[in-house]
Amino acid sequence: MRPLHLLLLSTALLPTLTPHALASEMAASALGEIPAISQVLVRKEERRLYLMAGEDVIRSYRISLGDNPVGHKLYEGDERTPEGQYTLDWRNANSDFYKSIHISYPNDRDRELASSWGLDPGGSIMIHGLPNNAGDLAFAFLGLDWTDGCIAVSNEEMEEIWQLVADGTPIQIVP
């Protein structure tokens, strides 16, 4: 169990979660003891990604976002992380980063919004680990917003997310 994570959570910061959910972050040592993940919740302002089973927080991770993290992604190259309801729809074990799971951005609304500005909404938004070539500099990425709009975690955390989250899992990304 990660007690510090639980201390940092509060019902004011997590209005969609119940107090019961806050106290229920699982401390299972074996992945087989963890309930099925029903949703991934990302709170950009908090720089947190939560793995949820119903209303219970099963895991919580510190994340890095795009270089321009405030606001919804509008077009390719704006370096923003999108906001909204999406699906984790496929994965890549051989990406340029330590594993990656694709977020179904852009949806129809995203395409329409970008089109109204005459822009391309972009794509290839992922949850991923650190760059494969980070080597001894891996520590420098942690805690900074450095992606082009993706959601990044440490390689160890990406390995755990990879094992716990199935393709087809909904992801909600909120400001």
Automatic annotation (TrEMBL):
MF term (GO), any: carboxypeptidase activity
Catalytic residues as annotated in Swiss-Prot or TrEMBL: H128, C150
Key word S-adenosyl-L-methionine present: no
Keyword Magnesium among record annotations: no
GO biological process: cell wall organization; peptidoglycan biosynthetic process; regulation of cell shape
Keyword annotations: Cell shape, Cell wall biogenesis/degradation, Peptidoglycan synthesis, Signal, Transferase
Signal peptide start and end residues: 1-23
CDD domains: YkuD_like (cd16913)
UniProt-listed Pfam families: YkuD
Involved pathway(s): Cell wall biogenesis; peptidoglycan biosynthesis
Domain L,D-TPase catalytic as annotated: residue spans: 38-174
Homology family: Belongs to the YkuD family.
Protein name from the UniProt record: L,D-transpeptidase catalytic domain
Annotated organism of origin: Marinobacter zhejiangensis
